[in-house]
Amino acid sequence: MSGNSIRKMRPTALAATAMTNRRLASHAAMRIPTVERSISIEPHDVQPHYHPIARDLTVGDIIQKRIADQEWLKKIESKPIPKFSIEYNKRVIDALKQLAQQDAAAVVVTKNDSVAGILTERDYARKVMLKRLHSESTTCEQIMTPNPDVASMDDSIDDAMKMLFHGNYRHLPVVEHKGELCPTSGNPLYPQGKKKLKGILSINDMMNILSKLIKPNLIEKANMPSLREFGRLSEKLFVVMETDPVRRAVELMAKKNVGSLVVVDGHACMTGIVTERDYLRKVILQGKTSNQVMVKDIMTPDPLCAETEISVSEALDMLSHGFRHLPLLDASGKMGPYHVASGKRCVGMLSSKDIVNYLYQQ
Fold it and tell me: What is the DSSP string of 74-109?
């Protein structure tokens, strides 16, 4: 977990040990691209509400600003411009290395300079490892999601958000312009099948937009709910033993359709969290096998946690600084792993998409 800067929060808002506080302090000077994953709200639950800012701001505005920032970093700090695409015939292991280097969760797969598909960390965990394929011999084309929906530079942020939620996506390739709509299917038509790629948009981009542009209006409302009233977060809480093999954790995440698990010891006490990204970067890219590595060897120990009494806006502050999953603690919780440092129970797991979904509907 990483971020640019951590804002001041209520002392009671975080259940953090000394190790967590040291880690937060070290994040203050870091600038790492945002990432996202984990879905808990079904697409049909979303009733988009148009907000003037989100309606007037375009996808192109976001992409152009990102390009300008990258050009500035290249000039001032000699940092290479991140790649957000890979050719369809490249090996999956090459895609994983690129994702790790860019600290990204997805890459657009191209063929003949056109968008052919999209490949995510989750695609690897569920289409390569679980199907016993090999990343050294499997191509990106074999496991990518083909012909993904795309956003154009002209689309509003509202349009992009609707596409993310209704399609149950976490990432959208961005093309220069969409073609005319097909009268039969209603889908955009592209000259000679071309979709000129301009970038990629993620759910965390949306979270940052909402945090900066829309959240000030929401904070003024007296009825901002606490996370305790947020609902359904306990449905995402699944645990794995720290002595289990990593393969067991990956299989459980796939079965439950989640991106993270709470790790417990033999006394049912929470000792950390493990994610799909941990598996990819600490097992696969290290040349290890999931059956030979234990969960405790790759988990994030002593993770940052949030208490259920904090508000949605406070949770947004935490997640908007690079934290993708937040275990939730409750003093009145009767079930769930015991969190020794706070003396409370872990009762749920909060993700970036949970927050974006809520704020978008306000």
Answer: HHHH-PPPPP-EEETTSBHHHHHHHHHHHT-SEEEE
